[in-house]
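Continuing the series of single-chain predictions for the mutant panel. This is the parent chain; the variants come on the following pages.
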Amino acid sequence: MPRITVAVHNERVKLFAGFLNAISLGLIGFAVLRPITDDISQVSWITLWWGLAGLVIHGFAHYIMGMMRKESRP
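Parent structure:
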């Protein structure tokens, strides 16, 4: 595979992983941290589920980063 194609592939992988990471951090911040800081009585099981969903998406971003390709030496 040509070097330019590997570089483009790796940048797209990093971009998608960064997008997923931003989504997960926003989800955790909005679904978990906001209810905790506003009023602790608002925390419920749904808060836990949304927090776990954010962690799963974050873990998937780590998995996506593993799909980066190495450049072959000529």
